[in-house]
Amino acid sequence: MNLRRYLSLIVAFVMLATSTVARAMDVNFPSGATLDGRLQQEISTKSARDGQTFTLVTPSGSRIKGHLSEVQRANFGRKSHLKLNIDTITFTDETSLPINAEVVGVSQKKQTNYAQAAGTVLGSVIVGNIVGKAIGTNLGGLIGVAGGSLLAANTSQNVILPGDSLIRIRLTAPLISGVQAR
Predict the structure, then answer these.
(1) Rg (CA), the chain
(2) Cβ neighbours, 10 Å, residue 87
(3) What's the Cα-to-Cα distance from 102 to each of 33, 82, 115, rounded to whole Å?
(4) What is the enclosing helix (H) or strand (E) of 141?
(5) What order of strands is seen across the sheet that includes strand 53-57?
(6) How far apart are CA 133 and CA 131, in angstroms?
(7) Given phi > 0 = left and psi -120 to 50 = alpha, else beta, which region is 99?
(8) Is the pTM of this model over 0.85?
(9) Are 92 and 63 in contact (CB under 8 A)?
(10) From CA 94, how far away is CA 82, in angstroms rounded?
C-alpha cells in the first residue's frame, strides 16, 4: 500500500515537472512584438547612476530585468537624460532568457528644481537691471525676468519614473526557447 502511494507521488511529480518544462519550451515571440511591464521602483535622474538595475513586471507575472546607462542629472544649461537597457526576462516558471529589446514607451513626469529656477530668474533680474541702467532704460529687470524664466523652464528638470510606471518594450530579436530555439 505504501509502495503504491509512493509510486503515485513520483508519477505526479514527473507529470508536474514535465508540464513546467513544456510551458518553458512554448516561448515564441517574434521580433517587433511589444511587451508591457510595471516599474517596481522609482527611477530619478537626480539620484540614479549608470549601471543601476531595475525590474519590470508584466501582466502575466514575468519579471524583466534591466540596467540604466547615460544617466545625466538636470543642471544649469543641461537637460536630464537616461537610457533604460533591457537584459533578461524570467517567466513565472522561473525560466530565464536573455532578451533583446528597446524601450518604446514610458509614462513619466518631470520635476522642476524650483530653488535653481528661482536663482536663475533672480540672477537674470539683477543682470537685466544693470544692463538696462547702462543703456538708459527701466525695462532691463522686466527683460531679465522674461529671459531668466525661459531659461529656468528649459534647463532645470529631472526625469522621474515613479514606481508602477508603465513601460512598453519592443523586441529587436525573436524571443524563443526550448525545442523551437534549435
Answers:
(1) 27
(2) 14
(3) 11, 13, 35
(4) helix 140-155
(5) 96-98, 81-90, 63-72, 53-57, 34-39, 166-171, 101-106
(6) 6
(7) beta
(8) no
(9) no
(10) 29
| Amino acid (one-letter) located at 106 | V
pLDDT in tens, 30-77: 999 999 999 999 999 999 999 999 999 999 999 999 999 999 998 877
C-alpha cell belonging to residue 86: 533591457
DSSP letter (8 states) at residue 136: T
Q: Which helix (H) or strand (E) holds 102?
A: strand 101-106
Q: Which residues of the chain have pLDDT under 50?
A: 18-25, 110-111, 179-182
Place of cell 537691471: 129
Element (H, E) at 43: strand 43-44
